[in-house]
Amino acid sequence: MMTTMRNKKGKKLTLSASTSTSSFPRVLNKQAELGSDGDLSNSSSAAAASARRIFIPKHGVGIRVEQLYKRYDALRAGGESFVGAAGFDLEIAPNRLTALVGPSGSGKTTFLRLVSGLEDPTSGRVFLGGRDVTDLSTRERRVGVVFQGYALFKHMTVADNIKFGPRMLNLPGDPDARVRDLLELVELPHVAKRYPSQLSGGQKQRVALARALAAEPRVLLLDEPFSALDPEVRAALRAGLRDVLRRAGVTAVMVSHDQAEAFEMADDVVVFRRGAPAARGAPGDLRSDPGSPFVMDFVHEANKLPAGCALVRRSGFATRKQGAMCAPCDVECVQRIDDSSSSSSSYTPVTVLDRSFAGNVIKYRIRCEGEGGEPGVELEAHVPSNATALTPAGARGGGGGGRRSGQEGGGSSPSSPLLEQLEVGSRAYARCPPDRFMGFQAEDLEA
Ligand code: ADP
Ligand code: MG
Predict the structure, then answer these.
(1) Which ligand is nearest to the CA of 101?
(2) CB of residue 273 inside a 6 A radius of ligand 1
(3) pLDDT (tens digit, 9 = 90+) per residue, 25-34?
(4) Residue 121 near ligand 1, beta carbon < 6 Å
């Protein structure tokens, strides 16, 4: 990857990924930062490989924390203290988008603040690009932040907001060209002369992103950057941000309270619980193999059923735990079963209580009546809406291995359950492959 830049005199320079990555230790040295062209002046080839002038070289670095622990002590004697980071190791790969999810108070913001240097750990170390930065300031770490509370400077134009960071860091290059390139990157080329009050919420967030990127961060940290925006703007920004991050080549870590948003955008997801990561992985892997009841419930908003209920029993799952949970996307729900088929006994009769359409998924709320005096249970079954069903379920034999990809709406595959649109109020049959259940106790799910 070649990236074109300009030095102080406006001369075009081209950076390769390897050159720029190696500049990191030098940039951490404040002396080298001030009044120096950095290694830009070492890059001789002015033959621009790309027609675009983008000021951001590929220079994201990996993040690593060791035994990161943060205790917020009470301000008054006898007050409670809170643990924001419970003492954990975590490594985040460079130049990728990692999403942090988890319940409120699980330590996501604390982690970002510790990585950014806005907060000091009680103990433990933070490394960026392999270098211990625990004792460095945010600016020295070259970390960019787009936090909810980090508003644009109201009295400055968009252009001046964007120029602010590079000026503070004395970064080389033509400031106006930088503004132009970054506004182009966030697809707002026409707003340079405006003041923040003349922008919509979504535009402000895009400018905030451009401002953060202008300082050529090694790591970009975003804490619920879209949470104040309405759903349509969020959806547009989501796609845009991903694209910008790709092109900018920065390591990005984003907290999102919107689980679907995080899973859609991120290369990697870390689920936090009680001040530490409870699971991590690629979105598809975490969906298909959440590993623990807590993560499964968080990732899927799982159905939680009494372990002994008819649906669990007939589906063929047994556990010593109180409950059995399954993801709505693993519940098969069909209108008819073939009584002569050997698999028919694995289905439980249900009533369709509600139906809604969400993208290419149909969400059914179903009720399974209790047998022999046990109470009935309600659960959700999510099925891809683009699949069609022509044959009764039982005709397929005992198959139905579940949607192991864990991706809802992934279309009809040979192992998909048979799908037809079920009418609200109608009778149907449901089951879940036994290997898609997980036994749980109430305390497994506590935040
Ligand atoms: P999240 O971003 O996942 O919602 P936080 O990192 O904000 O979680 O909080 C983690 C824990 O640290 C919570 O128990 C929270 O109450 C506590 N905490 C966070 N910031 C402070 C603070 N400034 N003072 C005291 N406790 C705090
Ligand atoms: Mg938070």
Answers:
(1) 1
(2) no
(3) 222 222 222 2
(4) no
Ligand 1 contacts CB of residue 60 (under 6 A) = no
Q: What is the mean pLDDT of the chain?
A: 80
Residue of minimum CA distance from atom 16 in ligand 1: 105
Instruction: Give the atom of ligand 1 at the shortest distance from the alpha carbon of 113.
Output: 6
Q: How many angstroms separate the alpha carbon of residue 355 from the centre of ligand 2?
A: 33
**Domain at 63-281: CATH architecture:** 3-Layer(aba) Sandwich (3.40)
Give residue 288 CA to ligand 2 midpoint distance, Å. Answer: 26
Distance 420 CA to ligand 2 centre (A): 41
Between CA 207 and CA 199 the distance in angstroms is 9
**Ligand 1 pocket test: which of 82, 83, 227, 259 has the largest number of ligand atoms within 8 Å of its C-beta?**
82
Q: What is the pLDDT of residue 420?
A: 61
Does residue 199 or residue 404 have the better pLDDT? 199
The domains of the chain are located at: 2-42, 63-281, 302-445
- Ligand 1 atom nearest the C-alpha of 83 is 12
* Residue pLDDT, tens place only, 80-134: 889 999 999 999 999 999 999 999 999 999 999 999 999 999 999 999 999 999 9
The reported pTM is 0.79
Residues 226-260 have pLDDT tens digits of 777 777 777 877 878 888 887 777 899 999 988 88
